[in-house]
Design brief:
About 0% of the residues lie in helices and about 45% in strands. The strands form 3 sheets. Strands 3, 6, 7, 9, 14, 15, 16 and 18 form an 8-stranded antiparallel sheet that branches. The protein has an 8-stranded antiparallel sheet with strand order 4-5-8-17-10-11-12-13, with no helix packed on it. Strands 1-2 form a two-stranded antiparallel ribbon. The chain has one domain: Jelly Rolls. It is mainly β.
């Protein structure tokens, strides 16, 4: 299903432990694969429904209902807030239990209320946008069967590209907005790891539910706690 969104910022209308070494940036923008990368969707295919993983694990995704559009870097996917999503089959490489980084470029759209999923592995980890009058973003992990979440203090801006990230180092969850630390919460212990599928853009509960209304680019899941410098979208390519 699709809705029509005006995206003037894109110039078009579309239908709907210690820090690791810095990961490399590509000269044309965006991230390159490195040893800490468990999944990297650059979303530059431009057509079709198969999403290729640039990590060494080859975690292919299948897009449902999405539309290709202009991205932060090259191409991206438009999610209509109804049921659009990417499903990634269960993989041991995504069953992360210690250190974790979730990140994506998002271009929020519309005025819908509710929660818009960015990345979720049910009962393990999540990154989501809070849509409505006070748009923020939230992330969390599951420990001992219970979710532990932290919400940004800063608001998201509709109609503009923003980089959002969760970093968990085993003792603290930290949220970053455009490379700047925005919120944190002390949480100690292992993440509940499982072999559930990963969903991007919507939650699998329902038909699905909690669908995001945004344009999505450069989705990365890492099994390391990325250094703050790696999350700075303005740093130069190596």
């Amino acid at each position: 299903m699709s809705r029509v969104f005006s995206m003037s910022g894109l110039g078009m209308t579309a239908v709907a432990s210690g820090p690791e070494p810095l990961s490399p940036m590509l000269s044309d923008g965006g991230y390159a694969n490195d040893p800490g990368t468990a999944l990297l969707f650059k979303l530059n295919e431009g057509d079709g429904t198969v999403i290729h993983d640039e990590s060494s694990f080859g975690n292919l995704g299948l897009a449902h209902g999405t539309e290709w559009t202009t991205g932060k870097y090259a191409k991206a996917l438009l999610l209509d807030g109804i049921d659009d999503h990417i499903q990634v089959p269960a993989s041991p490489s995504l069953a992360i239990s210690s250190t974790l980084t979730l990140e994506a470029w998002i271009f929020p759209l519309g005025e819908l209320d509710g929660v818009g999923t960015i990345i979720v592995k049910p009962d393990s980890y999540l990154l989501e946008a809070l849509e409505g009058a006070d748009p923020k973003f939230r992330a969390g992990i599951w420990r001992n069967g219970a979710s532990q979440k932290v919400t940004s203090t800063s608001r998201l801006t509709r109609g503009d590209w923003q980089h959002v990230a969760l970093v968990y180092d085993g003792v603290t969850m930290r949220l970053y907005l455009d490379g700047r630390l925005d919120a944190e919460r002390a949480i100690t212990g292992a993440i509940d790891a499982n072999l559930a599928d990963v969903f991007i853009g919507a939650h699998p509960f329902g038909t699905p539910s909690r669908a995001a209304t945004l344009v999505l680019d450069e989705v990365r899941i890492s099994n390391v706690a990325r250094a703050a410098e790696e999350l700075d979208p303005n740093r130069e390519a190596a």
